[in-house]
Amino acid sequence: MSFKIAVVGDQDTVTGFALAGATYAHISTTKEETLVKLGEFFASDEIGLVLITHRVAEELGHDFRRMLQTKRLLPLVLRIPDKTGYAPEVDELREIIKRTVGVEITIREEGG
Amino acid sequence: MAMAIAVYPTRMELLKLRQRVGLAQRGHDLLKEKVDALVIEFFEVVRRIQEARAKALEQLSAAHRALLMCFAIMGTLETKQASKEAKRELQVEISTRHIMGIAVPTVEVGEVERNALMRGYSLRMTSSVLDEASREFERALKLLIGLAELEGSAFAIARELERTKRRVNALEYILIPRLKEALKFIVMKLDEIERENFSRLKRIKAMLEERE
Prior knowledge:
The structure holds two protein chains of two kinds.
Chain A: E1 2-9, H1 11-20, E2 24-27, H2 31-43, E3 47-53, H3 54-60, H4 62-70, E4 76-80, H5 92-100
Chain B: H1 11-74, H2 76-85, E1 92-99, E2 102-109, H3 128-211
Antiparallel strand pairs in B: 1-2
Helix pairs in contact in B: 1-2, 1-3
């Protein structure tokens, strides 16, 4: 199946990905609006990938996390840094590893 | 201390319980193997994510730099205008693949990078820095799509891992100890009955001998 790509974020991120060919875009201004839009994106059968900036994801907070848990396998959601390179301190993946495997891993360069 | 399951101390129950313990143990072993396999798979994906993420983020920040350049040289409004004119028809192929019964996404994408003519904005009104910015963003998008696939798999595997782990623990710490406790109870009870019977027989024998 073919799917399209959606972007949610600040003006610059959206502009950039629109230039690269992402079909749907939403410039996040208010939390409520963004949540509604995300709901639409998640419900759509056309969209296979939603890119969302870390900053927006964090603003949405709990509501966003609940949406992530209740969504189907598609669309995939990927959080990306915005133009300032902002990414949260806590790595989501690392948290999951800690919870499921019960150990904390750090990956370092091999041969060091 | 595990609570014993309420059972009748009969030989029939004993046999049934033994069977159940065997079954539970076998299930436990199988699930444990599944957990191990999943962990291996999971770490493999995590390792690939780390590599892919580093690459993608680097490309993304390069893209943002190019875009800022474009804003500066061509003007913010013009750039936004161009982004609205651009063809936004990128399609990705997403299907699911199964790793040990878990559906994980596979994403395939054709060429993301386009040449300036295919992007759809007017070449007459735009500068080459816009082409530059678009190209950088297309490259970043391609890497990010790959990263999204990996993260999607990691989340799916993690979810399954959690579920399996819970079942393993339920068997290991709740069900099997309880069954064993019940087993022990029956064996003790049966032994006790045996001993009672033995002394009873002895007593009867003594009484019979007395009568003669």
